[in-house]
Amino acid sequence: MDPRFRGDDVGRRKNRLGRHGHTMLGFIIRRTLLVVPTFLAIAFLTFVAIRLVPGDPIEVRTGERGISPERLAEFRHQLGLDQPVWKQFLDYLWQLAHGDFGTSISTHAPVLSEFATLFPATLELAFCAMVFAVVLGIPAGVIAATRRGTFLDYSLMGVALTGFSMPIFWWGLLLILFFSVNLDLTPVSGRIDLLYYFEPVTGFMLIDSLLSDQDGAFLSAVSHLILPTIVLGTIPLATIARMTRSAMLEVLGEDYVRTARAKGLSPFRVVGIHALRNALIPVVTVIGLQVGALMAGAVLTEYIFSWPGIGTWLIESIQRRDYPVLQGGVLLISGIVIVINILVDLLYGVLNPRIRHAR
Amino acid sequence: MALLEISDLTVEFKTGGGQFRAVDSVSLSVDKSEILAIVGESGSGKSVAMLAVMGLLPWTATVTAKTLAFDGRDLLSLTPRERRRLIGKDIAMIFQEPMSSLNPCFTVGYQIGESLKVHLGLDKAARKQRSLELLASVGIPDPERRLTAFPHQLSGGMSQRVMIAIALACRPKLIIADEPTTALDVTIQAQILELLVSLQKETGTGLVLITHDMGVVAETAERVSVHYAGQKIEEQPVRELFADPHHPYTAALLAALPERAKGRRLPSIPGVVPGQFDRPPACLFEPRCHFATERCREKAPPRQGAIAGLALCHYPLTHGRPVGHPHPEGREIAA
């Protein structure tokens, strides 16, 4: 080759290739270590907050009738509630350090096993809501961005803003009123019709109903999922649509989009591949952040639709002042949110080659 | 028949302040295997004219022309689909900013292979084979490894080589290079220019080189078209242009080259290119021109004949002297 045409930077860039293997591992370790203080803070906050609410588990259970002071003291002693709060907290941490999340005061079942039974219901609902939000939100944002300033753009973004501003419980009741009460199209509550009964295999109703081989079970499960999915998915849907639109607008003005068009590529390739791939990077971050919001929303949504998941379980635990359930439940949910956020950060690296190599 | 034939091309943009004319009745032609340089300051409409040829202007632009033909085909009457079949294949464009012109999310191999797939329908193995050939021909060492590299792993010079490889992928008949060296280090500029010219010679494509660098023009072009505020003000073969510029603007540009400067201070052209709201009524260069008279302020200048370099001027220069000027001895060229 003519030496004049030789590359200008052969050696300099060499060591930047193929180095991400162990830094990826380092990243995971760093993020995992950062989880410990977060967990301590969450444990502390829930522990203190629930004790700030008037009434302890025993008073709530005995109700207005009351109970003799001696019995009250005896029960409190059994549950360790007569100890100073700081001592109770340290004992709780010691328990946690041994992997013991305690037992429910009202059901006497271990918190962890109750969580494991109920969590699939919440996961199923949250997953469907997220799929609903992503599948509709990303195309809506892309369409709004490519039709910027048109009637279509304004209507899509208007709907998104409305959805974003909607109080979850009100929206849920509105949908129930319209689709379940007036039109009689969907069931009001629960996960499946009482007609069907089968032993849970995976805990996911959609899968279990298919496995059960009972006619109509699957359709019943689907129809029970529709409204809760819409209610829970609305805010993430609106957020994703708006984020996708603004990310797309930014990307569509980039030089490489002009390059793609100069190659004579179809509008679908230019927008759907060259632009969207870049616009997805901030959108994925937003999706990750929505997971936390989704868990919070699930609490309300489950309560409205009597969905037997973690949300309903936690709200009931507050009403019963079931300290171990609330503390353990919140910790476990937080742990799941944190793990999902770490996964999203890893996905971010997959989508964005600059991060993958630079870290 | 010229490869690219443009006559009376006008491009207007809708802006908040009304219509803005970025390109004003420009006529150009490029022959097969010819290098045409378009020279002008920023805002002279040189890039916009070529983007109009490619059909890459935003919707706010209105393109009109008496003729806009490539290889005998009328570009204005093409459907978007027909145009897409043409650009990237028969006409390719190289842009100013190589680093941001490559998509950061896709590998070099993907971005080269894409054109091959869309326009030529090559299969995966053939695409890889051709991509390797292309990378080697633009002087990228170790092409096999570069195929899987992402743009952020390349320097500016490397990126521009990749852009050139993409442009060459489908063996185009015409390449439009929009300031291909402006964003690069001075040391790399010469390499890239040399590469472009040698590839042009090798493949026999036409080349339109948009630049504001007279040095680049002198080294590479065969014919030069000088643009000012959206108008073509002069066009000559490169030797003749440097020897005897006919438009006062061209003369002033050449006088401002460091290697041509005579005095201790580098000569410059006073003032700036007129914008949307301060366009002079007649000759657009009049406010900055040493030879401007009352006539230049009142009457739009005529297009001179080929012997006066098609200059758009009332008093075209011949060997530095304005022809027909009331005081030809009165003032010297931008000294």
Question: Strands, helices and their partners?
Answer:
The complex is a heterodimer of chains A (359) and B (335).
Chain A: H1 10-14, H2 20-52, H3 57-62, H4 69-79, H5 85-97, H6 111-146, H7 151-165, H8 168-182, H9 205-212, H10 217-252, H11 255-262, H12 267-304, H13 310-319, H14 323-351, H15 353-358
Helix pairs in contact in A: 2-14, 6-7, 6-10, 6-12, 7-10, 8-10, 8-12, 9-10, 10-12, 11-12, 12-13, 12-14, 13-14
Chain B: E1 4-15, E2 18-30, E3 35-39, H1 46-54, E4 61-64, E5 67-70, E6 73-74, H2 80-86, E7 91-94, H3 98-101, H4 108-120, H5 124-137, H6 143-146, H7 156-168, E8 174-178, H8 186-203, E9 206-211, H9 214-220, E10 223-228, E11 231-237, H10 238-243, H11 248-255, H12 294-298, E12 317-318, E13 321-322
Parallel strand pairs in B: 3-9, 3-10, 7-8, 8-9
Antiparallel strand pairs in B: 1-2, 1-4, 1-5, 5-6, 10-11, 12-13
How would you describe this protein?
Chain B: Its main location: membrane. Chain B: It is a peripheral membrane protein. Chain B: Residues 4-254 form the ABC transporter domain. Chain B: It is found in: Cell inner membrane. The complex is a heterodimer of chains A (359) and B (335). Chain A is mostly helical and 359 residues long. Chain A has a domain at 115-358: MetI-like (MetI-like fold, Orthogonal Bundle). Helices cover 75% and strands 0% of the residues of chain A. Chain A contains 15 helices and no strands. Chain A is globular and about 85 Å long. The model of chain A is unreliable at 1-21 (pLDDT under 50). Chain B has 335 residues and is an alpha/beta fold. Chain B has helices spanning 46-54, 80-86, 98-101, 108-120, 124-137, 143-146, 156-168, 186-203, 214-220, 238-243, 248-255, 294-298, and strands at residues 4-15, 18-30, 35-39, 61-64, 67-70, 73-74, 91-94, 174-178, 206-211, 223-228, 231-237, 317-318, 321-322. In chain B, strands 7-8-9-3-10-11 form a six-stranded mixed beta sheet, with helices on both faces. In chain B, strand 10 (223-228) and strand 11 form a beta hairpin. In chain B, helix 4 packs across helix 5 and helix 4 packs parallel to helix 7 (156-168). The radius of gyration of chain B is 21 Å and the shape is globular. The two termini of chain B are 42 Å apart. The mean pLDDT of chain B is 89. The interface between A and B is large, with 35 and 48 residues.
